[in-house]
Automatic annotation (TrEMBL):
Residue spans of biased composition, Basic and acidic residues class: 235-251, 281-294
Annotated region described as Disordered, given as residue ranges: 235-294
Phospholipid/glycerol acyltransferase domain residues: 34-155
Single GO MF annotation: acyltransferase activity
SMART domains per record: PlsC
UniProt keyword list: Acyltransferase, Transferase
Pfam families attached to this UniProt entry: Acyltransferase
Organism: Streptomyces lasiicapitis
Keyword Lipid biosynthesis: no
High-level lineage: Bacteria, Bacillati, Actinomycetota, Actinomycetes, Kitasatosporales
InterPro entries: Plipid/glycerol_acylTrfase
Protein name, UniProt field: 1-acyl-sn-glycerol-3-phosphate acyltransferase
């Protein structure tokens, strides 16, 4: 009931405003369980995909969206529950994986659609990263549900990092043919099988999306980018310090050279004058003052 209301109030305006194009809707079964395995480019992926489907699709989301205190936190939690997202505690890697598997199995056992992002997090640069086998493959082999590859197109361009207002443009969604992994039934604890299943799904997503594939995890790529940005910032600070020191040194050298020039040119006497000499020099330079003779 809440999902339907949320879909009407959010999905309807999304479709009207952004007019997403869709290919392969016929690959979504009219009934029965199925896993939608999608690339992940933007926060909005979990809204655009459900908006174009007639059936309810349930995604998992980090638990922080459901546990933030205050009025805003309660509104956020209500919103995510309303759009059919389930909380998963990601504080421990193994615990998070187990929670995702259990949530997926529960959804599929009810005969519903379960949505999952095999990359585990949003792509940091628009490329497709290595899929994590813990959730997708285990859920697929434990339930026997077909896996439907999905490619989100250009959703990251709608609201790039740092931009407050979204850009009105048409994102796309390509839905591939269902993949059957029944040949691996009962082998959900074999890590080589889990890897093979995940890689096959990622290959299909890559073909649908046209993204460049990177054979490392997106979390590792984000870590590398963060470290590179930090190193670049430190290098810039060090360069600024060196530039400031160089400016000060150049100013000091220029002042010293000017002082030497004044001394050598006779503008400034070389050495100190005593009090009587300063007084005589001042009198001599004063207009109308006659020099005293010997």
């Amino acid at each position: 009931m809440i999902y339907g209301a949320m879909k009407l109030s959010i999905g309807g305006p999304l479709k009207l405003a952004f007019r997403p194009w869709v290919e392969g809707l016929e690959n979504i079964p009219a009934e029965g369980p199925a896993i939608l395995a999608s690339n992940h480019l933007s926060f909005s992926d979990s809204f655009f995909l459900p908006a174009v489907l007639d059936r309810k699709v349930t995604f998992i989301a980090k638990a922080e969206y459901f546990t933030t205190p205050g009025v805003k936190g309660r509104m956020t939690a209500a919103f995510f529950k309303g759009v059919g997202q389930l909380p998963v505690d990601r504080s421990g890697a193994r615990g998070a994986g187990e929670a995702a598997v259990k949530s997926g199995i529960d959804v599929l056992e009810r005969g519903e659609l379960f949505g999952i992002y095999p990359e585990g997090t949003r792509s940091p640069d628009g490329r497709l990263y290595r899929g994590k086998p813990g959730g997708l493959a285990r859920v697929a082999l434990a339930t026997g549900a077909p896996v439907i590859p999905v490619a989100m197109i250009d959703t990251e361009k709608i609201q790039p990092p740092g931009k407050v207002m979204p850009k009105l443009m048409r994102p796309g969604i390509r839905i591939g043919k269902p993949l059957d992994f029944s040949r691996y039934q009962g082998m959900e604890h074999d890590r080589f099988v889990l890897r093979a299943v995940t890689d096959e799904v990622m290959y299909e997503i890559m073909k649908l999306s046209g993204q460049e594939y990177v054979d490392i995890y997106a979390t590792a790529a984000k870590r590398q980018l963060t470290e590179a940005a930090k190193a670049e910032k430190e290098a810039a600070k060090e360069a600024a310090k060196k530039e400031e020191a160089a400016k000060k040194e150049a100013a000091a050298k220029q002042a010293a050279a000017a002082a030497r020039g004044m001394v050598e040119g006779g503008t400034v006497p070389d050495g100190k004058l005593d009090d009587d000499e300063r007084d005589d020099a001042a009198d001599a330079d004063r207009p109308g003052k006659e020099r005293s003779g010997s």
